[in-house]
């Protein structure tokens, strides 16, 4: 058997040896950046291996392919964002407006600190991911908000049965604004606290003046015009 060439031997000596957990974390970090830039379909196993300076079989050995790796990356980001928002809106003895502020800031904090992670979970939708997507997070958070709203609605004489609808609208408002902010931060002069303040301004003051039995004005006008 022939000996490895001096160049190959030097490359092997220069390569950093990692434990299995360290290698797994390295591959996840590399793939996270590529998935954020190119998405699942635009990223190949070859690219992941090249950026991590390993062979393709190493990626397959740890994750079974790019879909398995993507699943793990998404699952970690989903849990990180969900836990942050849930913790913010689950503080005991906190008034409803403050909970809206805390939840909004938790989302914007994540967007600011983990822009790659947010791009992955808010943009990509993968049939391979078992951990959930951004929509899954929003549904889970909306379920928590639903309970808070139902309690407030009951105290004010509103129909608690409408709380699920209002919770979806409220969470969707914050989420869409957050997506806008992550894409517009280089263009807008609005700071994170300002964005949060404007979001809460619309959500809270709009809810303060809710009508218990709203109707559409266009429907009323059409009825008035009937012969």
Instruction: State the low-pLDDT regions, or none.
Output: 1-5, 7-14, 125-131
Number of helices: 11
Using DSSP, what is the number of strands? 0
- The topology string of helices and strands comes to HHHHHHHHHHH
The Cα radius of gyration reads 24 Å
Keywords:
227 residues; single chain; mainly alpha; disordered N terminus; 72% helix; elongated
What can you tell me about this protein's structure?
Helix content is about 70%, strand content about 0%. The protein has eleven helices and no strands. The protein has helices at about 5-15, 20-40, 45-50, 55-65, 65-90, 95-115, 115-125, 135-155, 165-185, 190-210, 215-225. α6 (about 95-115) packs across α7 (about 115-125). The longest helix has 23 residues, at about 65-90. The chain starts with 5 loop residues before the first helix and ends with a helix. Mean pLDDT is about 85; it is low at about 1-5, about 5-15 and about 125-130.
Brief synopsis:
This protein has 227 residues and is mainly alpha-helical.
């Amino acid at each position: 058997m022939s000996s490895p060439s001096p160049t190959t031997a030097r490359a092997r000596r220069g390569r950093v040896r990692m434990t299995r957990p360290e290698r797994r974390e390295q591959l996840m970090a590399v793939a996270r950046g590529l998935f954020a830039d190119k998405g699942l379909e635009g990223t190949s196993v070859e690219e992941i291996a090249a950026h991590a300076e390993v062979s393709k079989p190493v990626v397959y050995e740890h994750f079974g392919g790019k879909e398995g790796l993507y699943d793990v990356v998404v699952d970690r980001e989903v849990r990180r964002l969900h836990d942050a928002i849930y913790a913010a809106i689950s503080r005991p003895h906190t008034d409803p407006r403050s909970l809206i502020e805390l939840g909004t800031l938790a989302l914007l904090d994540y967007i600011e600190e983990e822009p790659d992670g947010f791009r992955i979970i808010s943009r990509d939708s993968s049939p391979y991911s078992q951990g959930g997507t951004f929509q899954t997070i929003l549904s889970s958070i909306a379920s928590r908000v639903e309970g808070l709203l139902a309690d407030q609605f009951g105290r004010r004489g509103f129909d608690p049965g409408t709380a699920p609808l209002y919770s979806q609208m409220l969470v969707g408002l914050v989420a869409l604004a957050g997506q806008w902010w992550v894409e517009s931060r280089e263009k807008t002069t609005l700071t994170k606290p300002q964005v949060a303040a404007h979001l809460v301004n619309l959500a809270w003051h709009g809810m303060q003046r809710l009508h218990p039995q709203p109707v559409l004005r266009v429907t009323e006008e059409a009825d008035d015009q009937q012969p």
